[in-house]
Amino acid sequence: MSYENSKELYLGFDLSTQQLKIIVTDDNLNHLNTYNVEFDSEFKKYGISKGVLTDESTGEILSPVNMWLDSINYVFDAMKKDGFPFEKVRGISGSAQQHGSVFWSNKANDLLGELDSSKDLSSQLDDAFTYKMSPNWQDHSTGKEIKEFEELVGGADNLAKITGSRAHYRFTGLQIRKLATRKNPKLYKETSRISLVSSFVASVLLGNITNIEEADACGMNLYDLNTNSHDDELLALSAGVGKIDKVSEDEKIKGIEELKSKLGDIKPITYKSDGLISSYFKNKYGFKDCKIYSFTGDNLATIISLPLNPNDILVSLGTSTTVLLITKNYNPSSQYHLFKHPTLPDHYMGMICYCNGSLAREKIRDAVNEKYGIEDKSWDKFNEILDKAKFDKKLGIYFPLGEIVPNASAQFKRSILEGNELKDVEQWDVENDVGSIVESQTLSCRLRTGPMISGSNKESTPTENSQHLHQIYDDLHEKFGDLYTDGKPQNFDSLTSRPNNIFYVGGASNNHSIIKKMGSILGANNKNYKVEIPNACALGGAYKASWGYFCEQKSDFVNFNQYLNDKFDFNDLDHFDVDDEWESYFEGAGMLAKMEQELKHD
Ligand code: XUL
Fold this sequence. Notes:
2 domains, 7-stranded mixed β-sheet, 23 helices, globular, binds D-xylulose, Xylulose kinase
């Protein structure tokens, strides 16, 4: 790879669970090269499997911090070997797994500032951490803390109102409380600063501990998105000085202040850099005046790999399904997450994480193939049936795994709507499951994205046929009563708002029949795109760096999407047409909402 024609280069990091990837872009957003290291193949000495250390008995899942440091040296060494022109790099940003935390000692800043470029990072930073591990986002050892956080504020929906999410095992505030109260209070006391994984990487590159970036801070269950500051009562609980800890008022105030100082200030959404790369990296690799822009979480970086506007939705169809969207609406719910948007001030990223995605569909495909004597894992028969499927008042819920949204145990449920009545069906022809699974998965997404995007963008609710839609809404209400899919009743706006553009990514987005059906139910006002962005979060990071640098050169805030749009050719993206069946699926949405209310919980 030759970089001769590029004057300026940018690096986008993606420090994920199993690898570190660094991609190189130029100032025209061209992706020039990718370097990476897989943890399991290079860092066996840490005893990891799939990048982590797992203790099934406690649910603890940890990542070794030194391994991450080694990975930075490893990839930069490989780039150096490759003759990479580090001196051309103007800016670096990137992403990391969300929610993970790094615990620094009081020696950390000195050690970071005095690194010897003839040595590697991990051997010199051994004393920089009070804890050699970082709780990984897959950790599920904090069931006790989930209850405590939600009880403090009167339930999951109230916590979501404050912090954008209900309590989750992996959220940093809960992990900190576990450490401070039952795992290792001494270690918590000795910790001088706490970073998220994103701000940890930025800190290492800067040579001093930098602040947590605001969008990623929303994944801690500590940050109040309404006031843009930490919530004192949640901080107290996290620090082990909450009401339930029965401490004096003085101890509580002291504990809150201590945790505030460990976390440091939250860096508001900005294009401004955190500073220049440290002399360690200049001396060791040949960087010059390279700016470090705040890193963010991987999902947050993914949405900035495309110029997504309010009410645009990105549907990632992997083993699990993740839906990301942009909204100006702060309409939180215990069923999904809201984070601040990492580059567009006053915008939010909504996120819905479903457990049951491809795996559930594959089970139906296999049953179809078995019936028709098809031996391989072909989707042909499944797709042939799906292409003909229309809403026929039959719907199924297919959860081979326990589901997060809605919160339910593993189960299957099939229902038929007869008049105004929903009737359960034990079994039906497997052909019915084909349309039904894609319909119910999509309707679930439609029911949850609706409240998030409603009112966010005028276009979401077309006014020209609003009388007609009011009629549909009234009929639906008469048939089913209130529909409570996200903790509060749906209203006209939430049920009738349509997304603007929809972008389908991930393995199953290659199945045209599936995304066509999904598109017809979700009813985008504008276009449906099938995109392949295998390096999305690293790309998002590189774009953030080049946008930041561009704004800094102009000393002015340039709208991030405007910046991308000027350089991004939308014609490069594949879009596809769908038959708009949005209207004919209102009844299906009503059915699903009612069926979900009868699901079993653990
Ligand atoms: C999001 C989450 C995961 C990690 C994966 O809440 O926990 O998507 O960010 O790296």
